[in-house]
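If it is no trouble, might I ask you for a protein's amino acid sequence along with its backbone structure tokens?
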Amino acid sequence: ALADFFAVSRREWLKAWLSFNPGDEVARLAAPVLYIYGSADLQVARKDFEKLLDARPAAAARLIPSMNYVLKQVKTEEENYDSFTNPDYPLADGLADLLAAFAKAKPLPSGSQPYERLKEK
């Protein structure tokens, strides 16, 4: 399976993908930006998310407790992994309201938790 991923026919796509820098893309946007991080995200490390914040420091940023990478509400590591293939897990609490408020250019919901950067060690 890995050989298929690195097949000659995919090399151009891989080169383009590996050169993609999300921070550069976000910095170029003229539109408002809302960063959302889930505390249960297994794919994106918090330090990498914070690098993305640097691209648009004035943008709104919110933390959703117990939300994972696929935007689901999970309580355990087992649920986290299971939610990637099981559609029965609900969307994270507060996500829909947060996105709706942002899309309507309204103040973000008062219950949404502002994102706080990790403390430097």
